[in-house]
Amino acid sequence: MTDEGYPDRQPGVRDEPGSDRARLLLGGGLAAVLLAVIGASGGWVLAGEPDRPTAPPAAAPTISSVEATTPAAALPSPADDRPTGTRTTTPAGLTVPQVVGTDFEQARRELRDRKLGWRLVFGSGSGRAVERTSPEPGTRVKRGVTVTLWVAGPAPAVPVPDLVAQSCSDAADDLVAAGLYPRYRTGRQGPVTAQDPVAGSSARWNDPVTLTCGEEPATTPTASPLPSP
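The structure assignment produced for this chain is given below.
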């Protein structure tokens, strides 16, 4: 009796079970390797080529723009509109009176009325007239400025007034009015207790008179020694 499905098998001969198992394992291994190769090839195709590094874009050339600056027209200086004429200014204040040719005492009174100072310079000629002044007559000056008067002749004589017992300030005013000037030996406070030269003496204009002002210190009397017994 033969099996139609297995023509190669001989009757009475049985196949070895080990050889069939080896063939199955070998066929399965080949199939696994083939599937792995196919899978790797398909993945490489699907993934495509790796990205190539792209070169940086070329920088566009920059064109520097140069602005043309037009110089502004020079404005005229305010000084250009000023008049070219010379203008002189005089200081504000009083003016030196015209006293040249007048008596020096009259000239002194005019200066005193204008709140100006004076200084007398006597000459070696004759007469009491003022020859010149400094500053000159008509010059604008401020209050308190001293005006020098040059007198033609020498200083005239003047008597020394009595100043004792007056206040020191009143005595000084009397000396200035008489043409003299004060000097102070002990200060300017209190009454005049002494003067030099004394009252009635003869002096000349511009001569000094020394004043002693204030209470003189009281002198302590010295006790005389007792006689010995």
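Interim note for the steering committee: The longest strand covers residues 117-122. Confidence is low (pLDDT under 50) at residues 1-15, 59-73, 76-81, 83-91.
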